[in-house]
Structure formats: structure tokens, C-alpha cells
TrEMBL record:
Keyword Hydrolase listed: yes
Ranges for domain Thiamine pyrophosphate enzyme TPP-binding: 417-569
Name used for this protein in its record: 3D-(3,5/4)-trihydroxycyclohexane-1,2-dione acylhydrolase (Decyclizing)
Organism: Microvirga thermotolerans
Thiamine pyrophosphate enzyme central domain sequence ranges: 219-353
Amino acid sequence: MSTIRLTMAQALARFLAAQKADIDGEILPLFAGVWAIFGHGNVAGLGEALYGVRDRLPTYRAHNEQGMAHAAIAFAKASRRRRMMACTTSIGPGATNMVTAAAVAHVNRLPVLLLPGDVFANRRPDPVLQQIEDFSDGTVSANDCFRPVSRYFDRIARPEQIVPALQRAMAVLTDPAECGPVTLALCQDTQAEAYDYPESFFAEKVWTPRRLRPDRTELAEAARILKGAKKPFVVAGGGVLYSGAEKTLSDFAARHGLPVGETQAGKSSLAHDDAANLGAIGVTGTGAANALAEDADVILAVGTRLQDFTTGSWALFKNPGRRIVALNVQPFDATKHGAASLVADARTGLEELGEALGTWKAPEAWTAKARDGKARWFEEAARFTDPTNAALPSDAQVIGAVQRNARPTDVVVCAAGGLPGELHKHWKAAQAGGYHMEYGYSCMGYEIAGGLGVKMADPGRDVTVMVGDGSYLMMNSELATSVMLGLKLTVVLLDNRGYGCINRLQRATGGESFNNLLRHARHVTLPDIDFAAHAASLGAKAIKVKGIGELESALKEARKAERTTVIVIDTDPLASTDAGGHWWDVAVPEVSARPQVNEARRAYEKALAAQRVGD
């Protein structure tokens, strides 16, 4: 057996550079690069190794460890999980800064390889700078925080351990069902240790997505249930996009007369003008989609994990005899709430289910009801997004302005707060991937870094990031990275002077406005933050606008700009779309001195009666 003597870090870097992806017949690097913030736990070992492969495996410098991991996660999502990135940090705060991002990837089933530095395997210099010491367990380090938010975790304490660890890591990262974050904690002395590695370990490997076909028995049962439906409804989740099944879904829905609602992750599975597409479903859903979902007797859930925003906290599907057929590549998701499982790749599963259904179609009256509901919703929704001369426009009115200035190929990126709900209802995605939302973990601060990752995945599409002032203040440093890398974004920053969304929820549950909007928080002086000046200081072009008219002009200017542009607009913290939507289970105190809370509790207890428990 031929061998080559390398350090563990050098072997790791060479291995990653040798992994390839088959993207519709084009062979590309599976790992598009490595995000790195160096410190004493990775600069000497992995830093030297990455320098040696920089022509094949680019290294990108970021400004925040969580931010760079968000960018890597967004890259994977925009690449439909067929390409990915790695992230490396030093030990201590650099490593634990990535834990939140690991949770984002875990919840959203997205591949990212995390390579935090770790303590010395030989323990001779313990405790080293930034080392966490467990008084009762000498094997614990700060990186153990990654265990619950990693699909696979390993600590590399000997150089030869990297061989099986990387093989296991690749199996997880490329598996449609197991896909998620992998953490390989790299002991800093082990990174520098040499070993005679087999040359075969560094042979080029091309990865193609596995497409699981449905079990015959499960397929027959799913077809039987659907054929018995009088009011069938499809829920399209993120798995539709990851599978590349959007055309298959459109054909399937048209052939069988099925209305479709989209989750946050599944939005853009169908074009907004597809006859079957009723838009968003659930807590932030359209009136059209939710009306049919409430009445549906069979729900075909495709590629969705059926989280509470999709199911209205399991109170949306009100038909007492309703059945769920869950088509999902992951059995864990396919068996939730008593569903009839159809474990399969979304595209393959829809193709074979369509064949099994033959010429069967939903009753025409049901399909017609869907068409009529969609038309009524568009008429109703327009009044929330139409232009206005208001000094403080609503989020929906800002969305309307961005929509009017968008091109079909554009991508809108967002994450937490009130904007995701308004975008879910109102954004009209023209092409697959045109709507990029992190709403599985609803992570504030994802937006700008996520937009950067989307732009890296598809530089030919213009990317608009919509972000509130609260999220912007939490994490904005990757604005500077976008300028540094020449990856142009348009950032629309809505300043409602606080956490407007959670303030509305606070009031809706009977609470008094408290500690959310800046004016309701403890203060001596209210901050008057100049977001435009701040963005300009990071190298972006920055524009402060007054009202929707100036916003539309600024959006046109931003499209022509050569670098990232941040457009700041003041907005109303209280206004939101009061059409569509659905109840969401947020527990209200059983007792309170405030009558508003007691009134909210009575409404809450009434709503609880609609929840489906135990199925």
C-alpha cells in the first residue's frame, strides 16, 4: 500500500479538496471553500494545511464565527444540499460562537462541516488558554456543546482517527435523510502530528444525491388513502426543493386537481402564479390555503417536518376524519402524528405516487373552490402591499415596494421577527429558490450572513436581504465581508426601533408593552442609531429613505450599484397583516393581576379545544 506522510491537518485539507459533486452532469468541488477565523487552536496546524491547498480549496476570512457558519449554511440551502462548506475556529469562544449556527443547520437539515480547535490531546500544558475545565470529567471540553446540535460528533485525538471520522462525516453530510451539521473537534497538538496515510484516502470521489424509492406497500396505502379523498390538500416543504421536485409537484398537482400550500422552507416550490399554488400555509398562511387546509380530509405532506407554524400548533386541520400521508426521505418526519408514511425522495415519491393514482382526480368542486379562494386572497392581500404615503409604512408595504422592483430571478432572504410572516403571506416567488427563509430555528442575525452565502452559491442572481433593526444590531459584520469579497447584496433595513414582532405578541397575550421596543425598555437616553452611517463605515453604500416612494427609487439605484447597498427605512412597529394567518399556541398565564391577561387566557383555553392531541 502506497502511503504519504502528512500532518493530520494536511490530510484533512487534502481529503476535502478531493471531494466532488455531480451537479446535473457538471463536476464541481463538493466543498466550495472553508470559512476560517484563526486562533491559537487552529492557525498553526489547520492554517498551514489550508494554505497548502488554497488553489483547490479556497479559504475565506470572516468577521464573526457564527456569521461565517450562517453563510456556509445558507450556501448549502441555496445549493439544495448538493454542495457545502466547512468552518474552522480556534478553541474557546471562537468554537462556541458556532454552536447557535450548528443548531440552525440541525433544525433545517442542512449540511455544514464544523472544525473547531480543541484542547491538547496529550494534556501536558493543561489548562491551556480558553480551556473549559470540568471538575469531574477530564474528557470534556467546550466543544462538547456541539454534541446535541450535531448529526455526527467526533474528537480527533490521534492523527489516524481522521480517516474513519471523515468517512463517517461524508456519509452523514451527503445523506438526504441524515443530512445535517457534522462537528470534528480537532485537538490542536494532533493537528500538527504526522502519520503515514494511504494515498487512496485522497483519491477523487464524486458524490451524487441518493434518491430513495418508496416501499411498494407504503405506496399502495398512500394511493388508496388519496383515492378515497374528497377534499385532498398538499403541503409542500423544503424537501421538494432539495429534491429538485418542483416541476414534478406542479405536474402532479395539475394532473390530479390538487391545491397546494407552501411552508416557509417550501415556498417557491411552485411559482406564485401556478394554478395549484394557494401560497403560504399555517400560522403565517394565506386565507386561501388555510381555508382549504381546515376542511381537508387528506393532507399529503411532502418534504416537511410539520412544525407548529405549518400545522397551526396542530389545530389547523379541523376535519374530524382527516388523514395525513407523509412523503419524506426521513422516517422520523414521515411518522409524525399518526401519518401514513411514504418514505422516499420527494421527486421519486411523487412520480411513483402519480403513477399509482392513474387518472384519479380530486372532485372538480374542490379544485374550483381552491381557484376561487386564491383569487379572493390576491385581491384582499393587495391592500396591505399597495403603495402608501404614510410616514411610517408597514412591513407589508415595504415588501410590496421590494416586490414591484424585483426581477423573476431575484432571491429574497430573511429570518426572524415579523418579516418572515409578512413575506410568507405576500412574497410572490417567480422561480424556485427565489425565497430563502431561515424559519426552522428563527435565528436573529442570520439575514446578512445568509444573504452572503446565497450570493456565493449563485452569483448570477441578485440577492435582497430584508432585516429588522433588532436582527441587524445582533449581527451585521458580514456586510464588511460581502464588500471585501465583491459579493453584492441589497439590504433593506426596516427600523421600527425595537423588537416590534415580539411586542405585538406580548400585547396579543394580554401583556403590557415591556422591554421590547426601545421606548419601553429601561433607559436614560433613547438611542438614535444612524444605521446608514454604520453601514457606510463597513464599506457598503448606504441610503436613508423617507417613505415608500423614496424606497422604490433607492431600490433602482441599488440594482445599478457595484457593491453592497444598505437602504434604511423607518417603519411602523404595530402594523401587521390581519388577514389570513392562524392561531399559534403561546401559553398565557393562568392567573394574573391584569384583566387583559385573564381575558387572553380565556381566549387561549377556547383555542386549545381545537388542538388534535395524540394523533
